[in-house]
Amino acid sequence: MSSRNEKKFEIQSLILSFIAIAICEAVFLLDVAADKFDLDIDVEWLEHGWGEAISAITLAIALVIIGLQISRLLREHRESQDFVKVASGEFLTVIYRRFDEWQLTSSEAEIALFLIKGLSAQEIADLRETRIGTVKSQSSMIYQKSGVRGRHELVAYFVEDLLAGERINSAVI
């Protein structure tokens, strides 16, 4: 069954469960009202006890279906949270692996990470307690070694796969 058909089936099962619960609720409310006001609402084709039994069984089935759906949704939520945790850690791993491939020095790697984070050359110089000319010189070396033309291409190099919806794990390989 395709994912689209599975989703359609899941939605239909939830809708049917909701309808079944609503009908059973109406039956039980009618039964309570009949007991409260001493009304005789017996139907010729269905004995009172059987109506309650069918309603109770229908409710049980609806609860199982809804329970399975809740369980699936909770599992998908946990998997999504796990993926985000892995992705955030793996993203930094991917970045450092590329820095190694480009043979960046430790200073260049630190500056490159600051560039990716969006810090200006002056902010980087202040953080590293160095001159802005040194940061600009090292930035040029980073761009040359990585084969990009500037900060925007450097950031795009790492963000492109994320925006395309690809998994970080495939970039690590």
Folded structure, characterized:
This protein is mostly helical and 173 residues long. The protein has 7 helices and no strands. The chain has helices spanning 3-36, 48-101, 106-117, 121-128, 132-146, 151-163, 168-172. Helix 1 (3-36) runs antiparallel to helix 2, helix 3 (106-117) packs across helix 5 (132-146) and helix 3 packs across helix 6. The longest helix has 54 residues, at 48-101. It is rod-shaped, with a radius of gyration of 31 Å. The chain starts with a helix and ends with a helix. Mean pLDDT is 86; it is low at 166-173.
Q: What brief labels describe this structure?
A:
173 residues; mainly alpha; Arc Repressor Mutant, subunit A; 82% helix; rod-shaped
Secondary structure layout:
Elements: H1 3-36, H2 48-101, H3 106-117, H4 121-128, H5 132-146, H6 151-163, H7 168-172
Helix pairs in contact: 1-2, 3-5, 3-6, 4-5
